[in-house]
Amino acid sequence: MPRSSNAVASRQRRKKVMNRTKGYFGRRKNVWTVSVNAYEKGLSYAYRDRRKKKANFRALWIQRINAAVREHDMSYSEFMGKLSKSGIEINRKVLADLAMNDPQAFEAIIKKVK
Question: Is the pTM higher than 0.85?
Answer without folding.
Answer: no
